[in-house]
Amino acid sequence: VPATRVELTVSCRQLLDRDTFSKSDPLCVLYTQRPGSHQWREFGRTEVIDNSLNPDFLRKFVLDYCFEERQNLRFDLYDVDSKSPDLSKHDFLGQAFCTLGEIVGSAGSRLEKPLTGIPGKKCGTIILIAEELGNCRDVATLQFCANKLDKKDFFGKSDPFMVFYRSNEDGTFTICHKTEVVRNTLNPVWAAFAIPVRALCNGDHDRAIKVEVYDWDRDGSHDFIGEFTTSYRELARGQSHFNVYEVVNPRKKMKKKKYLNSGTVTLLSFAVEAEHTFLDYIRGGTQLNFTVAIDFTASNGNPSQPTSLHYLSPFQLNAYSLALRAVGDIIQDYDSDKMFPALGFGAKVPPDGHVSHEFPLNGDASNPACHGIAGVLEAYQRSLRRVQLYGPTNFAPVVNHVARSAAMVLDGSQYFVLLIITDGVISDMAQTKEAIVNAAKLPMSIIIVGVGQAEFDAMVELDGDDIRISSRGKVAERDIVQFVPFRDYMSGGPGAGLSMAGLAREVLAEIPDQLLSYMKARGIKPPPVPPMPPETP
């Protein structure tokens, strides 16, 4: 059990400049190791900051801090040159290794380390700050406007944006929010934004919050207009004369006797509500509906040959069965009727041998549901003997099949999860993207488990963690796809110690947040927990 959750903030100073005409565009990637494993696995990425050698990254890493484990961390920095999520396509800027305990145990939980990894070059330094997260679940929604800000641009007015910092115990500040840029105005009205109260003040309502106002410049050298400080307690008073702030530029104030301010910022609205968790919805009765789709295309190899991914050995489960079991065993606990629709795609099916991309594994088109994961495995093995593996590999039909069910229950009482197990060679990329963009509006998530040794570039693209997926210029409103390569969990060859718990954890990790993002977008609150029936004497 993790002792506590810790939020890491990453900054760098004096990074290498890898771009010819502008400064580097840095991105930081965090890797962690599983207990007892030496393999580095990507944990997450910050955002990319354009044209900066001294970035303060806004996106934090939230880690479970286990006092009794040595939690090794590796931070890699890259200069991002294109939209590709593939790190080998970007310039490496250096790396640093440490443990989570090392950061937490440093003075003020602030660790500075030199970046290394490029022989003969000084790569700059990385600054890591850890802060324990309070368990406050409130989210504040704030909106600000400004008046008569200083004009900073030679042509046209300023392009103002604000940066919010919370203060730390040692008097330093940590960035926690950036507004959007409002172009060409000295009287901007910024969009309302929601921020966890934890991020603004970590539960301490009197902690100082510093706000800096800048004029945005394309080359990254934003001009400082001025600053003010406030606190959560003050902001919580809402719109009032208390929440009109003078924006002051200390350097101007020192120089000019008559200097008053560089404009004012006004809080237009303030609201706070408790953030609901995944468990609030599950306790309130939301059911997870689990559908399985299995890839029966010929690229998997002939099922009668031991080299095939579909080979049914009397001694051990094949990769498809293992993946199905690992994920299904966990998800079936959240599904009350334990009936799972199971589909196959990419095979010629009896009686007439036509190619189907959504055939029922149990042979019953009117009701493709199987009883329990055991029932799904049985139907899968029966199908393998009945159908002929063929092609092409089309995902869109099974995505649309589940989307049709999800579109019938939009009230939050049910949430649909589609598990696609595939060898990763996809033929209908454009149609699948369109299906996913449409499904992102519905109460559903898609998990893709890739089996075999293929390059899974297309699957990584569908995952949309780094670049949100789009189709015909329409961007998916939420990220609903999680892709996991099965081979990462096969330790020491097939059938050896499989990290099934690890696979299930990785596969299901994003479902709670994806469910929450649907509920939030639709304004669905969890129903109150039904009362316990009275004890019978």
TrEMBL record:
Name this polypeptide is given: Copine-8
Domain C2: 1-115, 122-245
Organism: Gymnorhina tibicen
Cited SMART domains: C2 (SM00239), VWA (SM00327)
Entry keyword annotation includes Chloroplast: no
Top-level taxon in the UniProt lineage: Eukaryota
GO MF entries: calcium-dependent phospholipid binding; metal ion binding
Biological process according to GO: cellular response to calcium ion
CC per GO annotation: plasma membrane
KW Metal-binding (keyword) present: yes
Any coiled-coil regions, as ranges: none
Function statement: Probable calcium-dependent phospholipid-binding protein that may play a role in calcium-mediated intracellular processes.
Family per record: Belongs to the copine family.
InterPro entries listed in its UniProt record: C2_dom (IPR000008), C2_domain_sf (IPR035892), C2B_Copine (IPR037768), Copine (IPR045052), Copine_C (IPR010734), VWF_A (IPR002035), vWFA_dom_sf (IPR036465)
Keywords (A to Z) from UniProt: Calcium, Metal-binding, Phosphoprotein, Repeat
Pfam families the record matches: C2 (PF00168), Copine (PF07002)
